[in-house]
Amino acid sequence: MQGQAGILEMLVDEPEFSEGEKCTGVAVIAHPHPMFGGTMDNKVVQTMARAFVLAKWRAVRFNFRGVGQSQGVYDEGRGELQDLLDVIAHMAPQNSNEGGLALAGFSFGSFVTSHAAQALFPTRSIDKLVMVGTAASRFEVAPIDAALHERTLVLHGEEDDTVPLANVMAWARPQTLPVTVIPGGGHFFHGQLPLLRSLVLRHLLSP
Description:
Blueprint: E1 2-3, E2 6-7, E3 10-13, E4 25-30, H1 43-54, E5 57-62, H2 78-91, E6 100-106, H3 108-120, E7 128-132, E8 152-157, H4 165-172, E9 180-182, H5 193-205
Parallel strand pairs: 4-5, 4-6, 6-7, 7-8, 8-9
Antiparallel strand pairs: 1-2, 3-5
Helix pairs in contact: 1-5, 2-3
């Protein structure tokens, strides 16, 4: 699709439907830092996409500008936020008949997603928000509107040495925003991706 900085590479994972089932909505998932190998094919991003598909969401993964076949160059989060907003506008236009909107991100992607949520809500409804390994030690993550807290899942590894848990707690504490901690989990959740998928799926299936 066409973004502000050029063509953005994108993949859409479609759920399977039984008779009478319909799509829950569109979930847009943002990947880790472009300068450190982050792409839409990251294992955590794929795991989140799988959870969304199991919950009957259409899962949209895309490469930020300058990554893979996406045109443009890294822009320290500013342009990447525009990329995310462009993908949302293209894949889940407001007042479409596609159902709800969910946003998700991993690491740098969570930082960008927080600012997208801040830009869109409350003028646009966000049904689910999933933030994994949120890069609170390296970037200024936007606060989450209190009205979104019950729809938000913040997941972090206890032993994350890329983004220390203490930094995420320092971001969440003033908001009284709950953080779900995976015991022994590192930044990339090696050996714990099935648990990660299960926790995300449980959140998505909750009312």
